[in-house]
Amino acid sequence: HLNRRALLGAAAALGATALPALAQAKTVLRISTPAVPDDWHAKMWTVFKEHLEKTAPGEFDVQINLNATLFKQGTEPAAMARGNLELSSISAFDIAKLVPEFSIFTAGYVVRDPDQQQKVFNGPIGAELFKLVSEKMEVTPLATVYLGTRQVNLREAKPVKTPADLKGVKLRMPGSKEWLFLGDALGATATPLAFGEVYMGLKTGTIDGQDNPLPSVRAAKFYEVTKQLVLTSHLVDGIFIAISNKSFNALTAAQKQKVTAAAQAAAAYNNENRIKEEGQLVEFFKKEGLQVVTPDVDAFRKSVQATYQASDYAKVWPKGLLDRINATK
Ligand code: KDO
C-alpha cells in the first residue's frame, strides 16, 4: 500500500497525466504453466510474486496464468525464446529437444530422490548443463523444482508386477517423442495427450491410464476417474523455473538477483510442501477407494534402464555424466 501511495504522490507532483507513464514503467513478467491451481507448482508462483513485491516493491507486474491458458503445454520454451513470454517452468523433456545431453534426465530410474536432484542441479553438473540451456534455448534456469516421483495410474485395476503386464495399456504421456519413449519403455503403449485433457480421457476411456506424481494426481483429481495406482516410481521428475534471456538481460544486476531469489523461494516452498504431501497421499488414495500396489520395481528399473542404454538418447549423454550423477550424494 505504502508503495502505491508513494507512486500516486509522485504522479500528483508531476501532474495527473504522468500516472499511466509511471504505471507502465513496471516490468511485466508473464508466467504460463499447465499446472492446476491447487498444485504446489502453481501455488509457488504466488510465493514468487509476493517475494518480489517485498524485495522490489512497485518494480514488477507479475501475471500468473495457470491451466495452460496463455500457452499450450510444451510451447512455453519457444514462446520465451521469441520474447512472447517471460517465465515458465520447463521440463527436462522440453530441454532435451534442443539440448540432447539433457535427455539423461528424461530417462527412468536415473535420479534417486529429491535431495539428490537438488544436489545435482545446484552443483557443477547443473552449472554446466544450464550454460548449454541458456546458449541453445535463450532462457536461463533460475531454480530446480521437484515435481514429484512419477507413478502409473490406471482406469481399471489389473495385476501389474513387471513391464510385461503393461503390454497394450494405452498410457497417456505428454505430447513429445521423449515422453512417449518413456511410456513405451515402461512396457505400455504410450499415447500423447495434453495435461488438460487427461481427466476427460480417463473418464471416457480414450486412454487406459496416465503417469504423474501423486500430488498432481490429487490436485488434478485423476483419482476420481481411476481405480489403481501402481507405484513404479519410474521418474524423480524435476521442472526448472526459467526466464527468457531477453527479459533477464533487460534487468539491472540488483533486479536479476531479486528475481533469482524469488524463484528460489518459490521452488523451496514447492519442494517442502510437495515432499511432505507425497508421503501422505497413499493413505488418502486408499480412502478414496483406489487400489494401491507396489510392483516389482527392480524389474521395471532393469528393463527401463536397458531400454535407455540401448537407445540413441544414451549415445549423446556426455561421457561420465551418468557416473557423476550416481556419485552425487
Ligand atoms: C504431465 O503433463 O503429465 C506433466 O506432469 C508434465 C510436466 O512436465 C508438467 O508440464 C506438468 O504436467 C504440468 O505442470 C501439470 O502439472
Describe the structure in your own words:
Helices cover 48% and strands 20% of the residues. The chain is built from 16 helices and nine strands. Strands 1, 2, 3, 4, 5, 6, 7, 8 and 9 form a nine-stranded mixed sheet that branches. Strand 5, helix 8 and strand 6 (189-192) form a beta-alpha-beta unit. Helix 1 (2-14) packs across helix 2 and helix 3 (40-55) packs antiparallel against helix 12 (253-278). The longest helix has 26 residues, at 253-278. The radius of gyration is 21 Å and the shape is globular. It binds 3-deoxy-alpha-D-manno-oct-2-ulopyranosonic acid. 3-deoxy-alpha-D-manno-oct-2-ulopyranosonic acid is lined by residues 33-35, 39, 41, 73, 91, 174, 195, 212, 216, 239. Residues 33-35, 39, 41, 73, 91, 174, 195, 212, 216, 239 line the site of 3-deoxy-alpha-D-manno-oct-2-ulopyranosonic acid (KDO).
Name the shape in a single word.
globular
| Ligand catalogue | 3-deoxy-alpha-D-manno-oct-2-ulopyranosonic acid
Specify Rg, calculated over alpha carbons: 21 Å
Mean pLDDT value: 95
Main sheet?
A: 9 strands, mixed
Strand content: 15-25%
Q: Enumerate the spans where pLDDT stays under 50 for 5 or more consecutive residues.
A: none
**Count of helix runs:** 16
Helix content: 40-55%
Question: Separation of termini?
Answer: 45 Å
SS elements, strand count: 9
